[in-house]
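Re: folding output
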Amino acid sequence: MSYTTTTNTGTLWVDSAGTTAASAGGIVIGRHPRLEHDDTPKTDEALRKQNAELKAEIEYEAYKREELQSKINMLQREVNDAERLTESLRAQLRQAEQQQVTMSASSFTQKELKVMLNKLHPDKNKGSEICTQITQKIIKAKGR
């Protein structure tokens, strides 16, 4: 079966699988191209049949579009749920960190914190990594 393209740039061949190839371009894979240009008169019955086929194809494409839109909507809801959960978990983490610092600070008096800072300061413990970490926590707790 051969069709002339709408821009008259070449000949278009269509095989039974719906594969199209144009003499003026590359190969395009797809369903029934609508580049048909046919000067032969058609009967009313043939036109009705063609119209019915086109309507059926439009309905099928609309159905596929609705299915895809439904999937997109579902995925968007999942993304929104995940974002809400992530933000909730971040808020819980911030709250837990704040409570931990508050609990640490409230567990000791300022005087006790000062004594610990003096005893554990890295300069007095040969630059000990654990002393550095503890000192930073004490300074943070002392500041609250």
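--- second protein (sequence, then structure) ---
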Amino acid sequence: MTDESSPFYSYDRSSVGWLYPRKERGLDILNEDLARIVEANVDLVPDPLLRELIVEGLRGQLHAKRGRKRLPSRVARDLYIVSLYDDLLPRLQARAGKRSAAGEKKWAVNLAPAEKAYAVIGRYMGMVPERVRNIVSQIKGQ
């Protein structure tokens, strides 16, 4: 029902007007309630495909994002690793610059500053340097 002048506008469970008193009273509004209202009121979402997808989404019938769910603790750990990297890299680059300016020869076994940062952080966090590199490049590449 879309006729706002109707006395049943705020009592009809398939009308938008039914939502306002519930929201004002702090009552729960369920996904199924919204799906029912979107289905009954074609003028709310004119496009039929979008309307169908919205209803399916509200009813939980759409597929979720694939892959592993990221835990908040894992996200925090990854951000901590990136902050360590951002803090350590400039110092290692400055040290390498001083060595270069002093004329010291770089040996093949010496790591580049970024690789050294990955190794140091990996040792500190208990993971291999490649994993640290992947975490840093994933977050910094976003």
